[in-house]
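User: Sequence in, structure out. Go.
Assistant: Echoing your sequence, followed by the structure tokens.
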Amino acid sequence: MTVETWVLEAVEAGGTKGVTLRIVQRHIDERHFEELAVDTLESALAALLDAGKITVDGERYFPAKRTSKEDAMKQLFGDG
């Protein structure tokens, strides 16, 4: 697994409450027995934000809302 996969897993585990960087760090440490540096986690969070897989509000990270099949088709081909 990559660091980004672990970070995404931690953010998804937080659900609608969201998670902070420290919660992500603790989640990975407890589940995968890896102590990752803050800058490594910040880089992974930034990459996930750029990819649209997570969102951020203040210091809390949330899973990105999933797009329904119909909405995806509208975005791809337009409304009509």
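User: And one key feature?
Assistant: The helical segments are 3-14, 21-32, 38-50, 69-77.
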